[in-house]
Amino acid sequence: MSDCNCKNTETIPDFTKEGFSGKQGPLQTSLVTATHTVPSLHQQLADQGVLALDVSACVSASYDGSKICLTFPIIGNICFNAPIHIPVGAVLKACGTVCTKWGVIPEGLKITLYLNNNPVWNGVVWGSC
What is the structure's pLDDT at 40? Predict the structure, then answer.
């Protein structure tokens, strides 16, 4: 993990490069639907017979001088104190996975923070995992 200041060795992969489950390929936008409310998400999942849910994604992140902010699917907007120094002009992204209880109830968000496409930190930024 080169210069990664990671708490453990479980770096979440950069899905934009490695794909999901090691399968490379571009995001198929025809398979993506926007769900803007929790009730509509619950209904969409129920309509599809979803009994368990696994959400992993890479999202862009911003830095305001003290906090890193991102919007993650299912969880929404999250801001947390920057765990490391972020240089001016750096490109940030977070690749993460939602931790669930019984495979369906979101309980936490674990991310790896990428700085200029290099993993530099990983940890839980919301809830517990």
Answer: 65
Using CA atoms, how far apart are residues 58 and 113, in angstroms rounded to an integer? Answer: 10
pTM of full prediction above 0.90: no
Q: d(Cα 21, Cα 127) in Å, to the nearest integer?
A: 25
b/e 14-44 (16+ beta carbons within 10 angstroms → b): bbeeeeeeeeeeeeeeeeeeeeeeeeebeee
Question: Given phi > 0 = left and psi -120 to 50 = alpha, else beta, which region is 108?
Answer: beta
Sequence spans of domains, the chain: 1-24+52-129
Separation CA 49–CA 110 (nearest Å): 26
